[in-house]
Amino acid sequence: MTYTKNREGYLIPSLSLPNQSNPYLNRYARLRLEYLEQNKPTLCDQLMLEGTLLTSCSRIGRTAQRMVDKTLHALMQTTQMPDRRTNPLGWAQLTNSLKKQAEEAVLPMLYEI
């Protein structure tokens, strides 16, 4: 670690983040980031200084999205769905309900450390 001396003679650490592109943060990645910022600020700062905060949130977000999609697909296979052409509102209502059920199973994963 390098230090620079300011006018008063104090040594200030020269910190910089590595140059890397910002990964895409989906809904679940943003929820994970928000949780870390509000509830685990020390861990959030540590990951930020290491340069792994956004990549780890993005990885967890992608994993959560895959789990939600897989669970939703399984729920739709086992549930009697109304016909989409004759009852579009009933189909959308049931699909939204199943998506909420799938998310309820996955969301606790975002808050584990």
SS content category: mainly alpha
From the N-terminal CA to the C-terminal CA, the straight-line distance is: 28 Å
Task: Name the poorly predicted regions.
Answer: none
Proportion in helices: 55-70%
Count of beta strands: 2
Report the principal-axis shape.
Answer: rod-shaped
Major sheet strand order: 1-2
The average pLDDT is 91
How would you describe the oligomerization state of the chains in this entry? single chain
Number of helices, where a helix is a run of at least 4 consecutive DSSP H or I residues: 4
User: Biggest sheet: strands, sense, closure?
Assistant: 2 strands, antiparallel
**SS strand fraction:** 5-15%
Rg over CA atoms: 21 Å
Helices and strands, in N-to-C order? EEHHHH
Can you describe this structure?
With 113 residues, this protein is mainly alpha-helical. Helices cover 64% and strands 5% of the residues. It has four helices and two strands. It has helices at 27-39, 41-50, 53-78, 88-110, and strands at residues 3-5, 11-13. Strands 1-2 form a two-stranded antiparallel sheet. β1 (3-5) and β2 form a beta hairpin. α1 (27-39) packs across α3 and α3 packs across α4 (88-110). It is rod-shaped and about 75 Å long. The mean pLDDT is 91.
